[in-house]
Design brief:
Number of strands: 8
Number of helices: 6
Low-confidence stretches: 78-96
Strand content: 15-25%
Helix content: 40-55%
Order of helices and strands: HHHHHHEEEEEEEE
Number of domains: 2
Mean pLDDT: 75
Strand order of the largest sheet: 5-4-7-8-1-2-3-6
């Protein structure tokens, strides 16, 4: 059973919006009893829908009103073609038909609207959780006294390359880089970090532009770090002519 695939299928949202058959609803309830992850997701979606319903910012789209009015006008035109109606049982039937049609339109559009909004809200919450986790990890590095900060200065003052920072833990050999340069490289190029160990360059991994700390390969007994621009995927040896920043420990 692929639980993630089941959760992402949208069946839980349709269940909460009463858009499933009775048998399908029973199956969802059985899945919730069997898998705690699915039950937790159903509760999360239910809470999100409740928040969505009470939010002033989450209003039905403006086009909903136009669709409803068009539906009413369409039925009115049919009424005009068939001739004037008096307030008889047939007239009553006509107005009930209009009401049923409008309700159908509202139900369909509202279901689609709230389903889309719920998915969007879930994506935003997931992104926020990821960003929070990244921030927590970065803070742990910054606060850990075992991490030494090494400033990497540009080797050519004429190049538009900003400085970078290395955070190196000599005890655990962990290495993180904070890369401040925002200029993208050609698609076939990539930045590569090097550590100088026993006088020789050692590959510390390739990386791309990022706003967050990036963890590199573990390095022990380094005396300096440097960054070069290499072919995508990295190089076995550094291209000294493409070195952009360097810093001694």
């Amino acid at each position: 059973m692929d639980i993630n695939a089941y959760i992402n299928s949208g069946v839980l949202e349709l269940y909460l919006l009463n858009q499933l058959t009775e048998q399908e609803g029973i199956e969802v309830e059985e899945m919730c009893k069997k898998y705690p992850e699915i039950l937790a997701e159903r509760i999360a979606i239910e809470e999100a829908l409740e928040s969505l319903a009470g939010s002033e910012q989450k209003r039905p789209p403006a086009f909903l009103k136009d669709v409803i009015l068009n539906e009413i006008n369409n039925h009115s035109r049919v009424s005009d073609v068939t001739g004037p109606r008096s307030m008889t049982s047939s007239s009553s039937t006509f107005y009930w038909a209009v009401a049923a049609s409008v309700i159908g339109v509202i139900t369909t559009l509202a279901t689609f609207f709230f389903y889309s909004q719920t998915k969007d809200l879930k994506n935003q919450l997931s992104l926020l959780e990821q960003q929070t986790e990244i921030s927590k990890n970065e803070l742990a590095v910054f606060k850990n006294p075992d991490f030494k900060q090494i400033n990497l200065a540009k080797v050519d003052s004429t190049k538009e390359i900003q400085t970078a920072n290395i955070y190196w833990n000599k005890t655990s050999s962990e290495v993180f880089i904070s890369w401040n340069n925002k200029d993208p490289l050609p698609s076939d190029k990539q930045y590569q970090l090097w550590a100088i160990v026993d006088g020789k360059p050692v590959d510390a991994g390739v990386f791309d532009i990022s706003d967050s700390l990036q963890q590199m390969k573990r390095i022990a007994n380094a005396t300096a770090f440097a960054v070069t621009i290499e072919q995508k995927g990295g190089s076995a040896t550094p291209t000294l002519s493409s070195m952009v920043v360097m810093g001694a420990i």
